[in-house]
Amino acid sequence: MNAEELMTGLTMCAAPEAPKKIEQLRPEVVIDLRAEAPVTEESVSFSLANGGPTDPQELKRAIEYTAEVLQNGNRAVLH
User: Fold this and answer.
1) pLDDT per residue over 40-79, tens digit each?
2) Contact of 33 with 62, CB cutoff 8 Å
3) Would residue 73 be called left, alpha or beta, if left means φ above 0 and alpha means ψ between -120 and 50 degrees?
4) Nearest of 23, 21, 40, 26 to residue 79 by alpha carbon
């Protein structure tokens, strides 16, 4: 995967902008990095943005998951 493919498939935004981006882009996957993120059928969450130290294993899981989504040709919104 090259940088162009990464930037084509992944849209990053702040949480307040996410609903608008999701509606506009209709991604296959929504990845939420907030600790307080609700669990839904439409999104996957990783507890990274919680104001405290990030668990290295959780960060690794988030990176691996995002890479797999993009390598499979899916589009994702990350917030």
Assistant:
1) 777 788 777 666 677 888 888 888 988 898 989 999 998 8
2) yes
3) left
4) 21
Joined together, the tokens standing for residue 68 give 């797999």
- Better-predicted residue by pLDDT, 13 or 4: 13
Q: For residues 57 and 46, is the Cβ–Cβ distance under 8 A?
A: no
SS in 3 state form for the chain? CCHHHHHHHEEECCHHHHHHHHHHHCCCEEEEEECCCCCCCCEEEEEEECCCCCCHHHHHHHHHHHHHHHHCCCCEEEC
Burial of residue 45, with CB atoms counted within 10 A of its CB: 0-12 exposed, 13-18 middle, 19 or more buried? middle
Residue type, 40: T
